[in-house]
Design brief:
- The structure is a single chain.
- This protein is mainly β.
- It folds into two domains: about 10-55, RNA polymerase II/Efflux pump adaptor protein, barrel-sandwich hybrid domain (OB fold (Dihydrolipoamide Acetyltransferase, E2P)); about 70-175, OB fold (Dihydrolipoamide Acetyltransferase, E2P), CATH 2.40.50.
- Helices cover about 0% and strands about 40% of the residues.
- It contains no helices and 16 strands.
- A five-stranded mixed β-barrel has the order 8-9-10-12-11. A four-stranded mixed sheet has the order 1-6-7-3, with no helix packed on it. The chain has a three-stranded antiparallel sheet with strand order 2-5-4, with no helix packed on it.
- Strand 6 (about 40-45) and strand 7 (about 50-55) form a beta hairpin.
- The radius of gyration is 24 Å and the shape is elongated.
- Bound molecules: zinc ion (ZN).
- Zinc ion (ZN) binds near residues 156, 169, 171 and 174.
């Protein structure tokens, strides 16, 4: 009989142990004297009661901390800051963030002075940024890899294509500027 260790990852139907060794706990079921996992998670054995349960893998949104890379959409623009609705944290693409908002102040857009924020960002832009303050959820795009990764033409809403340091609309040929990420248009974060 293989020994299931504490913290062992199991899938539904995986054998956790036998009823001679353990007491079946939460998220388990018994069949022919053996305990099986009824969900994906980790095994947790209580050393006192010998109860073996499966702790389901959490679908809760990941914690956002200083230094994390996040991706979000510009939902509002003020004189000196843009407001983003965050979509996800890098590495946790499949665990969406619920209604999390963040801001990028004009002083955190580039490493150099920015005079006009509207030359850097526009509504509906998808931006990749780093968290500099996880309490007030302030972000920076002051690295080559950070900035706009997808943008739309302000005239006709077509997706803009990169043309060297500028963006061009393939439909109406309108030219626009942004604080671009090095990975603009590559479809990768
Ligand atoms: Zn256009």
């Amino acid at each position: 009989m293989s020994e299931m260790t504490n913290g062992c990852m199991v899938l539904p139907g995986d054998r956790v142990g036998s009823v001679e060794e353990y007491v079946p706990g939460q998220e388990t079921y018994v069949r022919s004297g053996f305990i099986y996992a009824s969900t994906t998670g980790t095994v947790e054995v209580d050393p006192e009661t010998r109860s073996a349960r499966v702790v389901p893998i959490s679908n809760a949104p990941p914690r956002l901390e200083q230094g994390d890379i996040v991706v979000g959409e510009v939902v509002d623009m003020k004189e000196s800051l843009v407001i983003l609705s965050l979509a996800f944290k890098k590495g946790y693409e499949y665990r969406p963030l619920p209604d999390e908002e963040a801001t990028i102040h004009i002083s955190n857009v580039k490493n150099s002075y920015v005079k006009d924020l509207r030359q850097m960002f526009s509504l509906r832009d998808i931006i990749k940024a780093r968290i500099v303050d996880d309490r007030q959820m302030r972000l920076t795009t002051g690295e080559d890899d950070l900035g706009v990764i997808k943008a739309y033409c302000s005239r006709c809403m077509t997706g803009l294509q990169r043309k060297e340091s500028r963006l061009e609309c393939p439909s109406c040929k309108h030219s626009e500027t942004r604080k671009l990420s090095a990975s603009y248009g590559l479809g990768v974060v």
